[in-house]
Write a structure and sequence with these properties.
Heat Shock Protein 90, alpha+beta, 4-stranded antiparallel sheet
Amino acid sequence: MVDAVRSVKLPPLPLNAELAAFSVLELLSNSIRAHRERGVGEEVEVRYSIADNRLSIEILDAGRGFDPGRLPYCLDGSPDTVDLRSESFAEYRMRHGNGRFGMGLLAARKTFPAFDLTFVDRDQCPCPWYSGMVRGTRIVLSAPVASEAWSEDLEELPLAEEAE
């Protein structure tokens, strides 16, 4: 999966490509881990496209979501105010045996100009976390494309299988 994601040729973006790749891979890792831990046999869906000079990446899983209140930072707050060396981050890592760092969402929010996280029900309709109806999580990341040449000739990015 990691090699497939890395093999996709991305358009020039006005953001750090390494941080963008790290963010997407962290989010995918989180989704895959949620599926594995909860015995979900469905695949994590990843879609990416270019439209109106914007790259959009959507990650949709059926991992039953997560409690945003357990993150070591406020998901709705500014990511620039989060201190990775804070006591709340240290406690979060310790609670999870240093196996979770809370970095995927934070890295994506800091890297991509547009970030949207929605919990979805079995029909993939938005629902609040506390509703008891959450089937999964949809994350949509978006950034402007730095070169208009890409969007003139390309409606969608090539799939990983096509890039090989």
